[in-house]
Amino acid sequence: MRTGAPAIAQPAEDNPDHPGRTKLSCIAVSAYYRQMVSDASGVAVTRVRFERNDDALGVGTSTPRISWISETAARDWRQIAYEILVTTDGGVELWSSGRVDADASVLVPWEGPPLVSRQRCSARVRVWGNGGEVSPWSAPAPLEAGLLDAADWAARFVGPAWDEDTSAMQPCPLLRREFTVGASVERARLYVTALGVYEVEINGERADDHVLAPGWTSYHHRLRYQTLDVTPLLRQGANAIGAVLGDGWYRGRMGFEGRRNLYGDRLALLAQLEIAYADGSVEVIATDETWRAATGPILSSGIYEGETYDARIERSGWSSAGHDDATWTSVAFVDYDLRALVAPVSPPVRRTQLLSPREVLRSPSGKTILDFGQNLVGRLRIILSGPAGTTITLRHAEVLEDGELCARPLRNAQATDRYTSGGAATEMWEPRFTFHGFRYAEIDGWPGSLAPDAIQAVVCHTDLERTGWFECSDADVNRLHENIVWGMRGNFLDVPTDCPQRDERLGWTGDINVFSPTACFLYDVGAFLASWLADLAADQHHDGVVPFVVPDVMSGRSLATACWGDAAVIVPWTLYDRYADSGILEAQYDSMCRWVDHVAELAGESHLWDRGFQFGDWLDPAAPPDRPRDARTDTHLVATACLVHSADVLSRLGTLLERFGDATRFARLAHDVRRGFAREYVTSSGRLAADTQTAYALALQYALLPTEGQRQHAAERLARLVHQNAYRIGTGFVGTPLICDALCDAGYTDMAYRILMERSCPSWLYAVTMGATTIWERWDSMLPDGSVNPGEMTSFNHYAFGAVGDWLHRVVGGLAPDQAGYKRIAIAPRPGGGLTSARSGLRTPYGMAESSWHVEGERTVVRAIIPPNTTATVRLPWSPETLEVGSGQHEWTVDQSG
Length: 898
Known about the structure:
- This protein is α+β, with helices and mostly antiparallel strands.
- It has 15 helices and 43 strands.
- A hairpin with a 4-residue loop joins strand 4 (79-88) and strand 5.
């Protein structure tokens, strides 16, 4: 078996924790929760975590915050006190909080002595409840600090010493070193990263299951290193460690401009293996001048290009002891400031699922094409037997056109892998350092007949925990939601990308700005987006301009642009709203203020952002294929509205963080810009200068209309526009997340449902009727006749328009935060659209919550599950009454008379 193709377990059908599990129904979540609480005896403290991570090996802070969940079947249960006890490995108390009379259980501050590098300890928690009960101590949660200071590194970056033509792809280098291990190893830790991407092996076995490590950050400012427990891989006596390096994002071709070497032109490895023996001694094996380098069987590898591998030139046993490396060359040191090294806070990219082909097709030109039935992100794994020198070519694409693989939307991305057989009886291979967005794969050169199980698709993405589920009585709406989930999975590959298939795959700020509420429900993205926001702040221009893409590969050529730049404010605010993480607000506060202050300066005395480049309501369905920013809504109206919204958020944030001067300043800015907006764009009756769905949605949702009469008229005008457009969508990136809420809040819930349920183009369900399995970039990425949109920019996996998922979760399913982090939950379903049932389920920081409803004759039954230590505000359909309930299971029956 090739080392690039480790085994992977299929996600269990009944495991709600597996991140690759996308088809788990809310019913299964409910059953899981009910079983959990029925098994609880009294109160149990579970899932003690540090900084939102279940895996606390190599934590990068000396004061990690602690969270836990209380499980109990008791109704209306609240925590009234807690105690945290932290002990060393030897059981010696490191610190105790004592009994703290508080209900806090999420991201509780560390109050003990700061950790030092490599320090190991464990934490236990117990809680007191409002019924007088006290829980047993939780199971110990282990914690080990990483390397917290640059001085902890004895290793230096090393890479091949040979000269390379870095204007083109080169063979992937191998690095190795042998060493001797004594008896009685107690533990071994490998601290490792690379300039480029890497895979590391010890004694012929992979040291981890990560893909494309160390991932993509703003390398000049931040480079993540990994901490790996490699104790089981060591053996007494002779050992070897080896690594293979690839260009990845570091020096590979990036962006549609096609530039290479954006961060550097030399690949390098930094590895520090620390072996602790039972007698207390520590041996360190670090990258230095004694390592050796050679080329291997990966002839070339690129994110956009794909990978070429020749098994005939494999170096058998290259990462095992005893390999003859006499012909290998020396290595050279590569300069890099070790102060930029940081421990990761987010899970790594992993292989999460295997998919077998649904169908083997023969194209009109005679090509063999595999249909996996799902647009996915990853690569292929092949198992073959053939003569040495047989070359298999694998080409990837999202769609077919006229029965052939449609590669035109890939633009300059080749998305092609090639494998040349070494002649073994059975060979298994999977690329290491590339990924593709595809549903279809064209296979050329296969020896003999293609067995059904010879090729599988390996799904890859950041291994986030799935937290949210939605389903309803309409199969097409369920498929729409499933498309949103698959689109997010594919595009959350280390950074939140705009698309996973063409010569782009960049962290566009506008996309995640509109999608972040949906993302926060579906998966636990708190740490993932916190890491990305750190890169946003690092790459932000000195004047406050936020790059179009993060990490910024456009060489600082970005301009201040509404909605895109506003991600600096809206994304951290969303993380606070959904996870109650005030730390992210503190970390990003300067970045947020610099952005809004810069835009306020651009607006000047008129308080109108009416100059400069804008993306505007990008991909308005009326925009021509070759001019995606030609929207019907005035771009500067959009920009001014976005400035109001960001200033409002910063004003609330200033109050929250007790920065009252800033709160007042930004409140005044929002007030002044509102006045400027009304003066410029609003008539006395409430008609807007841009008579579009997006304009009215912005004005209504961002409170831009001064009088009640204007608001009423604007709502009526929005409803009329929706009706005149036959309930088809009329919004682009900016208006789409707002349109359904604007209608519902104005009393036109039936119209919001009609937009949702519309199946003609443009609409959400049009793509479903055309067989989509992810969210498209354009409303008409595929035309009704089955041809692909002629525009140069056409992707079939682009999550931005999936922002409607947030409305599905909150309004159709009826589950939303009523206080930051779901400490208080809002249960407020709004049935409609001919649906007979809907359900939203969410694993909140306090445990499982659920809102569901179904029709029984003339009545509607509403059910809710509220986790311990939280409360809920309940607004039943057709009833003016507001209820307050505590934890437990609740049920109400209502009719349309209330």
